[in-house]
Amino acid sequence: MTTSWFAIILTSIAALALTLLPLPATMQVHNPQWLLLTVIFWSLYRPAQAGLIYAWIAGLMLDVATNGLLGLNALLFTMTAFLFLSLRQRFGVAPLLSQALVIAGFTLGYLMVALWVEGVATDLVSMATYLSRAISNLAAWPVVFFLLSRFARISER
Amino acid sequence: MALFDSHRPGLNLLLVLAVISIALMSLDRIGTRWVSQLDQGLGGATDGIVKAIHQPVVMARGVGQWFVEHSDLQAEVERLHEENMLLRGQMQQFVALQREVDELRAMLDGEASTIPGVLLARRVGHPPSLHGNLFTIGRGHGDDVRPGDPVIDAYGVVGQILRSTRSGATVIQLTSRDHILSVILGDTGRTTLLRGTGNRQLIAERVPERTAIEPGDLLSTSGIDTAFPRGYPVARVTDIEMDEAQGFIRLIAEPVADLERLDHVLVITEAPDAPPDPSSASDSVLEHPTITPPTDGHTADESTAADVPAATGATGATDDD
Question: Looking at domain B180-256, does it have CATH number 2.40.10.350?
Answer without folding.
Answer: yes
